[in-house]
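Query structure, 510 tokens:
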């Protein structure tokens, strides 16, 4: 298995996703320069404590309690109290993949050397990832400023031998794991509780996963659109190269180029309706999917800049030996990225919903059977094909659209008005995750419906390489509907497989 070195070079979204999916191990840099940088930060903190310097969150209380002085003999207890009183998270737990993404995201920030943590802390985080002993993290309880304090407290709590972890397919107390392995819980040094918890790792980790899933949705929805242009006898000239040169959004042009490439021109000529202009859900697909395609540049920039930042407070400058108080825990960029992403993806769900409405309606589907049923004439009165699937798609789309209200505008004043303007970035990221799941369900349904429509039109053997590959991918989990049957399991299998859609790995899709 490949090893990802965390600490000296920036990580990518793909790096986080690979570690989250257990496709890569992690390691710390071996260079003397990096180790000395980490040690200087820790030593500088020790010197400040010895000199009785005032350091927020080290010799003072937290937040509005920053004026409360901590007696020297209690300084070492403070990190443990921070992790404990924040142990109030509720809601559904992050799944194992998401929790792994959070741990590697926090490791990336701390290993930059500006948080004043020890080698031992970083090494224990590496151990957690490589041994797949991962904190169980409740998803709710963060306002996204002063960091993801409550959810990240579950990492700190696990390190010190408290809370639960995912281990060997079960949820068990970390204390049991330490005992089985003959290990001692980590004793957090001054500032290390704050360094672990005061940052944007939860929202940023979720954002990395959301971004990659959104890429798959964009590819799948473009394939489905191409299949539906064929099945509905659409007009391929809507994606003309000269036409799209006149509206120079590169991502939009890229989607139109994919549609041109993936549509078989011979089939288009043989099967084209007399309708001069297709309905918007076909004609304007590049304009809708292209919004995400064009936004990928700035979305990646926002997410990866946050990923590769030191985002706790205060920062410990190991070069100039300064304590820097600021607000880098504020998740505004991730909030903006996720609020925007969920709108883009919900629009794709809506696009797919409108395409399915055309496919199942005999009044507008250019000769396809009612509700895409494959039943014989004798059995036709009994069978209803995709009728209920279309209702389900409408429900999933409506719910996705409902979640698009921007979370970032709902700032609350918290913690005695110390945190009086907060980002809501973690809620925005969670909202985006929900929109993505709902849209994946829509994509699964449309994948089945579009493949069924192509089959009913007798176009199976006339597809381009990419569309043929997509059809094969769908048929690995779906059989053509002849007689009515429950489709729940087949749809769920496609949802589960979508994040590994082979088209992106095959090289067929640019």
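Result returned for the query:
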């Amino acid at each position: 298995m490949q090893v990802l070195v965390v600490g000296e070079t920036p990580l990518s979204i793909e790096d986080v996703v690979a570690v989250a999916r257990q496709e890569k191990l992690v390691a710390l840099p071996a260079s003397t320069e990096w180790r000395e940088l980490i040690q200087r930060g820790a030593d500088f903190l020790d010197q400040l404590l010895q000199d009785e310097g005032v350091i927020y969150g080290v010799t003072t209380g937290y937040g509005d309690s920053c004026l409360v002085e901590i007696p020297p003999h209690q300084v070492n207890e403070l990190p443990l109290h921070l992790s404990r009183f924040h142990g109030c998270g509720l809601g559904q737990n992050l799944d194992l993949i998401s929790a792994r993404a959070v741990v590697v995201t926090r490791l990336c920030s701390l290993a930059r050397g500006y948080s004043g943590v020890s080698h031992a802390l970083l090494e224990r985080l590496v151990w957690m990832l490589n041994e797949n002993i991962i904190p169980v993290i409740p998803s709710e309880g963060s306002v996204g400023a002063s960091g993801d304090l409550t959810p990240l407290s579950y990492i700190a709590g696990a390190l010190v031998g408290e809370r639960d972890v995912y281990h060997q397919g079960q949820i068990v107390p970390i204390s049991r794991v330490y005992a089985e392995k003959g290990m001692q819980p980590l004793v957090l040094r001054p500032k290390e509780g704050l360094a672990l918890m005061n940052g944007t790792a939860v929202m940023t980790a979720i954002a990395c996963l959301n971004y990659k899933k959104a890429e798959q949705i964009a590819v799948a929805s473009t394939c489905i659109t191409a299949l539906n242009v064929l099945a509905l006898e659409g007009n391929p000239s809507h994606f003309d190269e000269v036409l799209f040169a006149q509206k120079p959004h590169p991502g939009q042009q890229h989607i139109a180029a994919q549609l041109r490439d993936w549509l078989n021109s011979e089939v288009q000529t043989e099967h084209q309706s007399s309708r001069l202009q297709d309905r918007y859900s076909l004609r304007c697909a590049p304009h809708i999917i292209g919004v995400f395609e064009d936004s990928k540049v700035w979305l990646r920039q926002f997410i990866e800049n946050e990923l590769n930042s030191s985002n706790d407070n205060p920062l410990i400058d190991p070069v100039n030996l300064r304590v820097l108080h600021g607000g880098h825990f504020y998740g505004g960029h991730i909030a903006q990225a996720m609020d925007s992403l969920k709108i883009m993806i919900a629009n794709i769900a809506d696009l797919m919903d409108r395409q399915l409405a055309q496919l199942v309606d005999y009044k507008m589907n250019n000769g396809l059977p009612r509700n895409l049923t494959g039943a014989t004439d004798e059995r036709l009165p009994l069978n209803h094909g995709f009728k209920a699937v279309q209702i389900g798609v409408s429900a999933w789309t409506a719910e996705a659209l409902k979640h698009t209200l921007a979370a970032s505008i709902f700032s609350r004043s918290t913690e005695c008005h110390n945190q009086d303007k907060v980002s809501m970035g973690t809620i925005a990221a969670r909202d985006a995750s929900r929109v993505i799941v709902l849209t994946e369900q829509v994509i699964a349904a449309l994948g089945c419906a579009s493949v069924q429509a192509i089959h009913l039109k007798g176009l199976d053997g006339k597809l381009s390489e990419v569309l043929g590959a997509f059809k094969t991918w769908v048929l690995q989990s779906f059989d053509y509907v002849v007689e009515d049957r429950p489709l729940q399991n087949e749809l769920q299998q496609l949802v589960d497989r979508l994040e590994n859609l082979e088209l992106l790995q095959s090289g067929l899709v640019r």
